[in-house]
């Protein structure tokens, strides 16, 4: 429905499993996705733990990283999933000789 | 008046705690050895409180309200939040007097930081704080920075904020010995196809600017250029802010290692506050850390 809703759903899911000052970190089981206005594709990506779909939908990269870790993906694994979306970098920084 | 007796920056990849042994022995010993040496120096200096600058990772704030700067003014803060990070989850004592003084002074001098009476601290601060005080009892004033959600505060503004932060700390009458610590960077990518890449050329160039006292050469960097060394490289702002606290003086880069298993260019740099650096006072144990300007070139 909106990228904000998807970002918010993933953010809340991540936070539900963390050990915060007022929560023991056991809130991911039974997480209620119906509270969010998501499209069918967004809901499917969430259900399928589809990191590639999240990336193409524009989920914030900090959230992708945190989601992948929380969902059990090793970095090498999620890099392989995302690698096909990489583009060659032609710009140069001031530090490059 | 308080004196900044210790000023340094360190990378904060969570794997330095959660997967320490994954790094090659020589690299991890070099990086962690620098933090060990600083911890000993902090003990020798009898540091009374510390101010940490690190970036927000969607731990306290989300898209509804995302401050560029937030000062933790509470009597205590909690951390670390990550369930998988092998650091005890505890209440960390704050320092309300110093924190509120920083708020007042920076408000009076051109900045408008947000404040929080309870911050949740993630690996961004907790990994480095733990290496400074493994009892986690040293009073901590956290300053959380936006390095993730555009529009970001420009790099040069962080340098100016650092100058005001330094002035604020040095005008505080309630303490004598304070440490200032920046956490984050250097090059790394997260959540995108380049995760795992490290831009060693940028890292060594940046460290060289620190060692030469040439921080002015990075202050006009725009976000798209910063991102050539990774979306995580926005965290270099924490280093720039501490450079501002120290007035742009040269830093001593105690360690730099491009640690592939930690997906980050991992560095530790320390400024001489007049009390020497961990290297100059002889705390850097074993093989002295080598300069990033020459090491590996």
Automatic annotation (TrEMBL), chain A:
It comes from the Bacteria. InterPro entries: LigA_sf. This is Extradiol ring-cleavage dioxygenase LigAB LigA subunit domain-containing protein. It comes from Pseudonocardia charpentierae.
TrEMBL record, chain B:
Residues 7-264 form the Extradiol ring-cleavage dioxygenase class III enzyme subunit B domain. It holds the Pfam family LigB. CDD domains: PCA_45_Doxase_B_like (cd07359). InterPro entries: Xdiol_dOase_suB (IPR004183). Transmembrane segments: none annotated. Residues 277-297 are annotated as: Disordered. This is Extradiol ring-cleavage dioxygenase class III enzyme subunit B domain-containing protein.
């Amino acid at each position: 429905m909106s990228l904000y809703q998807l970002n918010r759903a993933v953010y809340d899911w991540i936070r539900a499993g963390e050990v915060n000052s007022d929560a023991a970190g056991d809130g991911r089981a039974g997480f209620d996705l119906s509270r969010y206005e998501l499209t069918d594709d967004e809901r499917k990506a969430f259900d399928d733990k589809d990191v590639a779909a999240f990336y193409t939908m524009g989920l914030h990269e900090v959230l992708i990283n945190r989601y992948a870790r929380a969902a059990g993906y090793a970095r090498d694994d999620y890099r392989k999933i995302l690698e096909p979306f990489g583009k060659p970098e032609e710009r140069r920084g001031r530090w490059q000789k | 008046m308080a004196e900044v007796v210790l000023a340094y920056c360190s990378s904060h990849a969570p794997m330095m705690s959660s997967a320490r042994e994954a790094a090659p022995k020589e690299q991890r010993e070099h990086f962690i050895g620098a933090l060990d040496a600083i911890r000993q120096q902090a003990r020798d200096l009898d540091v009374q409180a510390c101010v940490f600058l690190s970036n927000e990772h969607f731990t306290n704030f989300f898209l509804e309200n995302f401050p560029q700067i937030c000062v933790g003014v509470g009597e205590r803060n909690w951390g670390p939040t990550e369930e998988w990070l092998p650091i005890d989850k505890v209440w960390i004592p704050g320092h309300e007097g110093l924190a509120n003084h920083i708020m007042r002074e920076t408000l009076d001098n051109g900045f408008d930081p947000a404040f929080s009476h309870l911050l949740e601290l993630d690996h961004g601060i907790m990994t480095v704080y733990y290496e400074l005080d493994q009892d986690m009892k040293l009073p901590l004033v956290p300053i959380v920075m936006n390095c993730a959600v555009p529009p970001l505060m420009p790099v040069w503004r962080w340098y100016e904020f650092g100058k005001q932060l330094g002035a604020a700390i040095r005008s505080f009458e309630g303490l004598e010995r304070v440490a200032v610590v920046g956490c984050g960077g250097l090059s790394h990518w997260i959540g995108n196809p380049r995760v795992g890449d490290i831009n060693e050329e940028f890292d060594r160039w940046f460290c060289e600017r620190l060692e030469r006292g040439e921080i002015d050469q990075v202050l006009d960097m725009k976000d798209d250029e910063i991102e050539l060394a990774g979306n995580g490289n926005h965290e270099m702002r924490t280093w720039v802010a501490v450079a501002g606290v120290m007035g742009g003086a040269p830093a001593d880069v105690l360690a730099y290692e491009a640690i592939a298993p930690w997906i980050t260019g991992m560095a530790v740099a320390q400024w001489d506050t007049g009390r020497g650096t961990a290297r100059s006072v002889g705390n850097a144990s074993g093989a002295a850390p080598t300069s990033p300007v020459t090491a590996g070139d």
